[in-house]
Amino acid sequence: MTRFFKKKPQSEKKQSSSSDWVMGKHSIEEALKYSSRSIKEIFIAKSHQRDDPIVRAAEKEGIHINWVSKDYLTEQLQSDSHQGYAAKVKPFFYHDPLEFIEKTTKNADESQLYVALDSIYDPHNFGAILRASECFGVSGVIYSKNRGVDLTAAVSKASVGASLLMPLLKVSNLVEAVKKFKEEGFEVITAEISKEAVPLDTFTFNKKTLLILGSEGEGVRTLLSEQADKKLYIKMFGKIDSLNVSQATSVLLFNWRVSLSRNS
């Protein structure tokens, strides 16, 4: 079902919250493959071809397509990096931490790792962390609604669709959420450089792990660091002595998976 708008869609005249959108060609493709039910309608720049694979996939799923100007997309998304593709999505569902933990820990033999984000303000880092988390099979991502970037169209693009697939736990107090995980038997790990930190490549992960990641500038806040059972750091071998937080996440999660396979 395709609609062509010469003017702005009547229902879309007001600028929408950017959390209602997913943008970027690859993000839309992944959403159509794995989360098509979350898509309400798709917007494509008029300059793109009418036989676009995204058009065919959307029409197969019965999703409306709106042909609009790139300026319209830029206005709605508050970004010009949409590549001429965007989708309005259903409101994101945020899980209650305790309820979600109880539901997912019924199988005691299943290994679980949650990622908690402390003060991650860069949307590209947030999106890349969601992408890595989905790729490595993380159980869920927790972040504070008060300290860090929220889900936006830019985050969804950087996540390449993972924002629609990854269970998200949005909390008002991250420290209290971490304490709840500890009460449920999770080992709390922070990624930071400190006297107590051990090299990642020598560490064996527990079956139930909460991994806390901090911002590149300040790292993990003291209140959260004090909750850690173990602290890890990644060895560097080049002249540059650090990775950004999303790159570090991929390294940490890969090593988690390696640790699980070693102990299986």
Automatic annotation (TrEMBL):
GO terms for biological process: methylation; RNA processing. CDD domains: SpoU-like_RlmB. InterPro entries: Alpha/beta_knot_MTases (IPR029028), Ribosomal_eL30-like_sf (IPR029064), rRNA_MeTrfase_TrmH (IPR004441), SpoU_MeTrfase (IPR001537), SpoU_subst-bd (IPR013123), tRNA_m1G_MTases_N (IPR029026). It comes from the Bacteria. It is an enzyme of class 2 (transferase). GO terms for molecular function: RNA binding; RNA methyltransferase activity. Pfam families: SpoU_methylase, SpoU_sub_bind. Its EC number is 2.1.1.-. Keywords: Methyltransferase, Transferase. Residues 1-20 are annotated as: Disordered. GO terms for cellular component: cytosol. Residues 21-95 form the RNA 2-O ribose methyltransferase substrate binding domain. The keyword Transferase applies. SMART domains: SpoU_sub_bind. PANTHER family: 23S RRNA (GUANOSINE-2'-O-)-METHYLTRANSFERASE RLMB. This is 23S rRNA (Guanosine-2'-O-)-methyltransferase.
